[in-house]
Amino acid sequence: MNIIVPIKQVPDLVEELEVDSSGKALDKEWLKFRINEFDDHALEEALLLKEDLGGTVTVIALDGDDVDKALYTAAAKGADKLIKVTGVDAELDNHKAAMALASVIKDMDYDLILTGVQAVDDLDGQLPVLLAEYLGLPHIEVVTGVKVDGNVATVQKEFSGGIVGEYEVDLPAVLGIQAARETPRYVPVAKVRRAMRSAEIEEVSANVGDVSSALAVERMFKPETGGGAEFLTGSVDEIAAKIVELIKSKI
Amino acid sequence: MKKVLVIAEHLNGQIQDITYELLGKAKELAQGGEVAVLLMGKDMQDAANSLGAADKVLYVDSDALAQFNPQTYFLTAAKAIEEYQPDIVLVGTTSQGMDLAGALSARLKMPLVAYVSALEDGKAVSQLYGGKMNVEVGLTTPYIAAVLAGAFPADKGKADGTPEVVEMAAPDLSGAKVRFKQLIEPEAGDVDITAQDVLVSVGRGIQSEDNIPMFEELAQKLGGALACSRPIVDNKWLPKSRQVGKSGLKVKPKVYLAFGISGAPEHIEGMKDSELIIAVNTDAKAPIFDYAHYGVTEDMFDLVPKLMEKL
User: Fold this and answer.
1) Residue A225 has what pLDDT?
2) Which domains occur in chain B, in start order?
């Protein structure tokens, strides 16, 4: 069972986001990056499947902000092989990112591709489905459960209202993971540092041809805050008293 | 004048609200042109009667389309788009839509803009970064827009009348690599969060599973129940039956107290109709404050003990 997990770094939304001087992109100067949380779930599910079935987990990412750290962290968690795809700038362009990944993955030996169902910057659609189409593979998005038996995976796909659809899919396939069956594992920094010394990142250049999102970004702007909340101020004690009063007026 | 095609969504035989939301928008975008709905299913012709706002229903009937299937629906939609040649295709940024939009875009080489919250002739706004940033893109037809649920009113897509039904043949779906097995209804939880007057709802900001009991206690003191946003369920800190949002439950309590919830669109959709929303989050710019009636930016771990004292 050889599993490929494409991951990517996204801005940490705990930080304040600002638009840069072009008016069309994020100001990266103060941004912190972290792994797309759903990619973290995809990696976890891949590692769990490997523990069950044997095989390997290969983590692949486009070159970009703090990518080496994300790849070494994946190695520290148990990934066997790390690949960095170079030569492609795919900011806000998942069509290009998917084609870049597909151009490298197509020559690899694998049974399954697991990646995050979505990311916070999917302007032109979610990666798993684009990647599947460029590789000519079947896909299922919003996956919350995967079991593999031979060349077939039984997959749970979540709909609205908590309803789940169960599907069988012939492998290889691309699954967009919403949640792994376990909370993504944590690795201490010391273990990541050890991985930085022992693991190797293979660099591969990509070929995307003329594929792109074909979208013209005209501006990026913060949503207008529609007045919204009245902020309660004062000491914590005063605020607590006010909240209790508000609640009691309703119940 | 534009030809606009809406891809209908149904689950358990029920047309979903997103379809009407898209249909209302489609009529506006068509500017007097034609609005068609693509309906894929098995023995679902009658559902066309609930799509009176459309000029035309393109209906594809097949056993392989009886329930949503990421592959058979994609292949069928691709064929329908090639035959109908719409200027604009509208699909939901939903579980079903996420399996279709990107694949159609890649296969048909039609640009796709996702997470659309506003759409007019030649221009779309995409809501990115968890609702913290908007991106405006220029569009030339043909294109596909994947629209956020709740972005447009469903009322505008509902009208009496029976549109013309045009039957289209399904492509060859016999070799499908994805096969539908069954639908599984959610397990009933120990608590029905849709039936509560008071919900204490927690998000990623509570930091640790160890903090769950404190909020559980607060909920109990208020005679309500503990609910949560998606990341808490993904991390298995609370069961799925406690999740508020698009993929969880829609709630409308008298009081909704949100702790450490940033307010991603997925969550907002499930709670925005609550009568009184009080949000506590140290990030004053968190989108939740656009929907809350009252906001608090104090540290919740200072605030909650004070609240308990006073109850």
Assistant:
1) 65
2) 3-168 (3.40.50.620), 193-310 (3.40.50.1220)
